[in-house]
Amino acid sequence: MAGNVQQRALDQRGLSTLALWMGWATTSITAFVVIYRKADVVNFIAHDQTRITWIILGMFALGVLVSLIQAMKLTTEWFRAYRIESMVRAKGLSAVNPRKQRRVVDRFIASLKLILSQNARPDLESLVEVEFSAQHRLSQFVALLGNLMITLGLIGTVLGMTITMNGLHGALGEIGVNQDLLIDGLRSAMNGMGVAFYTTLMGSVLGGILLRVFSWITDTSINGLQDLMLRTCLVHASADLEPSDARDVHALEAAVDGLQQRLVLLSQAIRASREEMDLLRKDAGLAYRELQALAEDDPVRRLAVSHAKYALQVRPGLLARMFRRRGQG
Question: Which of 91, 156, 187, 324 could form a disulfide with 95 if both were Cys (CB 3.0 to 4.6 A apart)?
Fold first, then answer.
């Protein structure tokens, strides 16, 4: 009972990554709505002719999607890691049976057991870094998107200032000459200032703050998983890392457990086969009785039986006449 309560508590701890991600996402959405509504960013994005803000929004959406998928996968990794820790604490490393190795922690245990089966000395720190490197690269990809968004914001600032300078230059040339062209030049200059302001705001807020925090959340979760697996191996599986009697005992216990599970499966299969044979025997008996009943009710069969009885009755007379004819001949 105590073990089940402890396991449920550990499973609740495994939700910390996803809970932290969702908390930051909620805070980000709230801040985005408040700030961007006051700055009228949505209206500017809809009429942005440079399309830089569209690119920034697209990269932000991609980064959030990748980070969310990674956070969900890391949550399942935490659940499995805590399960592995409980099994190693109870019966050693040999009690862990890596599944289809879809999870990083299962691949780590499978690699570690392969190294131990070859009587080699494992380098746990290097192994855990190699196995978790793909997750680190995915987290770094989200951070890279944030840096690219900041760069796009700076490019938008330069582009907006260029548009502003060109608009002011055209407006100054039309002072006292053509009021319509003067107004068009000032309007172009104001649009350029809007591009410079909004791209800087979106790049710095969405990329420099929000995506970087998302990347930090997942990267911290990966580091925590690495620490948990290292601690599990060093503290609870230390006897399995070196050739010893305790390691042999753990391996023997794991083999016995596996044999017991196979025996249970075999007994279940035999029981199921016996039940199927009983059902088949009952079905065969029922089918035989049904065929027998149909045969007794068949008029053709009754006619054949009557003819057979008649043939048996007249057969002695026929034989006697045949013998008399042969004697006379």
Answer: 91
Residues 193 and 167: their CA atoms lie apart, in Å, by 10
Q: Is the pLDDT of residue 112 over 80?
A: yes
The pLDDT, as a whole number, for residue 5 is 38
User: Within 10 Å of residue 194's Cβ, how many Cβ atoms?
Assistant: 18
Residue count of the chain, please give it.
329
**Helix pair 212-231, 16-39: axis angle to 10 deg:** 170
pTM exceeds 0.70, yes or no: no
Establish if 248 belongs to a structural domain.
no
Q: DSSP 3-state assignment of 64?
A: helix
243, 273, 295: which is the final residue of a domain? 243
Query: What span, in angstroms and rounded, lies between the C-alpha atoms of 56 and 177?
Result: 40
Question: Residue 110: which domain range?
Answer: 2-243
Same domain, 266 and 236: no
156 phi and psi, to 5 degrees?
-65, -35
Structure tokens at 224: 């925590």
* Domains: count for the chain: 2
In one-letter notation, the amino acid at residue 73 is: K
Q: What value does the mean pLDDT take over residues 38-47?
A: 69
Give the Cα-Cα-Cα angle 184, 187, 188 (nearest 5 degrees): 85
